[in-house]
Amino acid sequence: MSGAFFAPDLYLNTDSCGSILVTIGVIMTKKNTNDFTDDLISALNKEHGSKIAYNLAHDTSPTHVNRWISTGSRLLDYIIANRNDGGLPEGRIVEIFGPPSIGKSHIAIQIARSTQQMGGIVVYIDTENATSVENLALLGVDITKRFVYVDTHCTEEVLSIAESTIMKAKAMDKNVPITIVWDSVAASSPKAELVGDYDKESIGLQARAISKGMRKITGVIANQNVLFICLNQIRTKVGVMYGDPTTTPGGKAIPFHSSVRIKLGAGQQIQDKNKNVIGIHVSAKTIKNKVSAPFRDCKFEIHFGIGIKEHEQIFDVLRKHGKELIDGKEVCIAGSGTWKSLMVTDAKTGEVLVEKKFYKTEFDQILKDPEYSAYTDALLERAMVKKMSNPNEINIDPESYEEVRAVALDLEEDLILPEE
Hints:
Number of helices: 12
Shape: globular
Mean pLDDT: 87
Largest sheet: 9 strands, mixed
Strand content: 25-35%
Oligomer: single chain
Number of strands: 20
């Protein structure tokens, strides 16, 4: 007897021999699980009258990073974004802090230049009244267009100006990159402190003002894809007997709301042949990073009036990384003596395809030369792009108050919104 009958989710087929072949088949209904998710998203957006719910697989949400703005340092871009075209993420708050005269404003100017090169607009809020027009020009910032300088010293005004600037600029061109630099948090004062007497108590005013402003402006920054950079100083905590006693002023709100926090450290001075100081060595460490793995560090040089130089530091990274197989070729940077070398060989035949000798100080020319840059760029990407799950990349200094606090805030931030 042959025949067939259907059930909602079971199909039975009997053949002429009497054997029964049972095939489980799911009859696709009009709405499966994915459709239910889409309907839920649609209902939420309709109920609220605006786009608030997203399917991250195919929707572009405020948490997606559409563009990355370079810091001027390739190594710093890599440790922040963990990608070859990285930098600082649009739509996020970034805090850069360190001791005085370490290069915070210099890096901010480099970021401003990168924003302009992308066709964007820079709003520089200078509460320190320390910006040099000549230095901006030397470092490649065009102050004649796409650059707005704001002079204010009030914390509430800084946040209010930032919010209104974002809305007005995006109303004119919603796709234009916008970078807002607050230089600096430590030099700003709440309104009550500015209009009050010197002997009037003002403990906690700055922290409360920043906390309130950050809660309000964070959503605007994310929805409008704006990069908001807060430059901050370090202060010494009273009563810390062991470890690093330094912390940042302004309370916990900025560390809490920041997606990336970069800690700068001082190194040796750079001198020319006449013993004139022409720059400084700088170390940078990401003590908080929501777009990549945190607690990675790098080193580079800041040359006054010129910018960031890091070819020698890149050479050290590539030499330490060793040989790498790239597109069937073995690429290697080596050299422990005066002469250094770039060697490219065929992985199958062993034939030497490229052999370039150079001095370490000349490595910047190798990086720029089209004949060799493809190899060095690919090798640098292999050396700097790390897997998020690699525990060996975690580098936390237990003696540093700020680094330990960064870990503590990461654990708390889903539960507690800072008020001070």
